[in-house]
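Sequence only, no structure available. Ideas?
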Amino acid sequence: MIVALMGYMGSGKSTIGKALATLLNYKFLDLDDYIAAQENASIPELFNKRGELYFRKKETEYLNEILNSNENCVLALGGGTPCYGRNLELLLDNEQVNLFYLKLSIPLLTNRLFKERSQRPLISHIQSEDDLMEFIGKHLFERTQYYNQAEHVVNTDHKTQQDILEELLMILI
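Reply:
I predicted one. Tokens follow.
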């Protein structure tokens, strides 16, 4: 089984994914980290040197590789992964995949992401919290149609990590 977590950047996919993998005794994979390791370059480097189209092509290639591995894992997707190409279809059509959307509100996303925006290529240029909130709002509006197609939508606003993990486990078990 593959437990795939999707949601906007900063929604907790990697943090929750690592903890869930430990509880399930599954391997944890962060798709962005996997891509970076395979390409021997960080995600910002790939965006800067090769461009977003190259990155998205590789993202689909490596997603397919993971989905076809027949290995139990918790997979944290990149924020844009389900929004490009056939990625969402690949996830939804795979019987081994349980797809979750970790949904976090715009104000909480803004609060989390403003502090770490220098490590995030899509928002590294944004200087104020108001501008970031506006960017996230517009971006999330475009992506929500993809995220909401997940089999399970988990609202994570004001929930502890333990609360979220318990909710995920109740669905999985």
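The longest helix spans residues 129-147.
Hope that gets you unstuck.
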